[in-house]
Structures are given as C-alpha cells and as structure tokens.
C-alpha cells in the first residue's frame, strides 16, 4: 500500500474514532474524515476490524518510535519513558484516551486487538525493566527486581488511563506517585536524569 494513502487512512481512522467512538465507527465515517472513498479504504482493508488492528499497530509503532532515542543513562531513559507516556499529543483534548479505552474494552472479543495491546504492554514493561536493570548494574539504582518494578509502573499507567477516562482524574497525580515509588524503591531522581 502506498505510504501516503496508508497515513491518510490512519489519520482519518483516529479522527473518526475520536469523534464517533468504537460503536459508531464505520468505514463510511472514516472515509468522511479523508479524501478517500469507502471503496478505496475497502481496497486496502477488508474489514473495520482489520483496519483497527492496523491502526493499533501504527499506534504501537508511533509509541515505540518516541522511545527509540534511548539515552545511555538509565535515569534519563526512565524520565523519557514517563514523559512520553504522560504527555498527550498536542492536538488531543482527551478524545483519543477515550477512543483507546473503547478499543481496550473490545480486546476480550477481538484477539487481534488483544494481541496488539499485549505488545504495547510488553514494550512498556521491557523499557522500564531494561532501564532498571541497567541502573542497578551501573550503581545508579538500589537493588530491586526489574520485572516487578516494570509491572508495577505499567499497571499504574494502565490504571491511570482508566481513571482519566472514567473519573476525569489528571494523569499527573499518578505520575507523581510513580516517581515517588521509583525514588523510594530505586533511589531514582528525575532531577539527576535531566
């Protein structure tokens, strides 16, 4: 598929998902958000589920890309990770968080969605665990189990997403809790990382 066409379909999917939600999302509504016809979109994606699977893959790739510039200092890597996770896109007023929550709610019924969400979870836990492991080895962090720390951080992030969407809670509340836990558990300091 031509890159420009795929990018247009992905951007239109995001806009339509944010505007209409998962339940009301149709290929027609995606087409309405683009310069493409429904036939053109169907030419590239047989079903809405296939399109949404690709959309989740693009979202995962974008997130992974933001984390790609890995600093050698594990303290900086943790800070970068938290900045990426807790910094919403410039053009987002919370609609994408709602849309993503709706897709997460579909995961028990769509294995392909669940697989993509598992990939996202594994990526996040891997970034945190690697930074913790490297920080312990370089004597920047106190000894701790990297996998346990990663699971705790990512679980808190997932809970933050639910609390933000369902309760209107500011994600910065959880970020402060995560940072406090990392300071206490590891001796990590975001001020040192900067």
Describe it for me?
With 194 residues, this protein is mainly alpha-helical. It folds into two domains: 1-46, Homeodomain-like (Arc Repressor Mutant, subunit A), CATH 1.10.10.60; 49-193, Tetracycline Repressor, domain 2. Helices cover 74% and strands 0% of the residues. The chain contains ten helices and no strands. The protein has helices at 3-20, 27-32, 38-44, 48-66, 74-86, 95-106, 111-137, 146-167, 171-186, 190-193. The longest helix is centred in the middle third of the chain and has 27 residues, at 111-137. 23% of the residues are buried. The mean pLDDT is 89. GO terms for molecular function: DNA-binding transcription factor activity; transcription cis-regulatory region binding. Pfam families: TetR_C_6, TetR_N. This is TetR/AcrR family transcriptional regulator. InterPro entries: BetI_C, DNA-bd_HTH_TetR-type_CS, Homeodomain-like_sf, HTH-type_TetR-like_transc_reg, HTH_TetR, Tet_transcr_reg_TetR-rel_C_sf.
Question: Could you provide a short overview of the structure?
Answer:
74% of the residues lie in helices and 0% in strands. By secondary structure, the chain is mainly α. The protein has 2 domains: 1-46, Homeodomain-like (Arc Repressor Mutant, subunit A); 49-193, Orthogonal Bundle (Tetracycline Repressor, domain 2), CATH 1.10.357.10.
């Amino acid at each position: 598929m031509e890159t420009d066409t795929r990018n247009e379909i992905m951007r239109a999917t995001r806009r339509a998902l944010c505007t209409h939600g998962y339940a009301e999302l149709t290929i027609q509504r995606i087409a309405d958000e683009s310069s493409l016809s429904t036939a053109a979109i169907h030419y590239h994606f047989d079903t809405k589920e296939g399109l949404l699977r690709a959309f989740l893959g693009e979202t995962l790739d974008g997130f992974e890309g933001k984390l790609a510039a890995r600093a050698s200092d594990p303290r900086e890597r943790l800070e970068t990770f938290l900045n990426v996770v807790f910094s919403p896109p410039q053009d987002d007023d919370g609609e994408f968080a709602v849309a993503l929550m709706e897709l997460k709610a579909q995961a028990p019924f769509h294995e392909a969605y669940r697989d993509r969400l598992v990939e996202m979870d594994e990526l996040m836990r891997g970034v945190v665990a690697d930074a913790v492991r490297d920080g312990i080895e370089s004597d920047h962090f106190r000894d701790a189990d990297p996998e346990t720390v990663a699971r705790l951080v990512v679980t808190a992030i997932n809970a933050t997403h639910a609390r933000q969407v369902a309760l209107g809670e500011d994600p910065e509340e959880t970020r402060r809790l995560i940072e406090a836990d990392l300071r206490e558990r590891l001796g990590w300091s975001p001020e040192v990382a900067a």
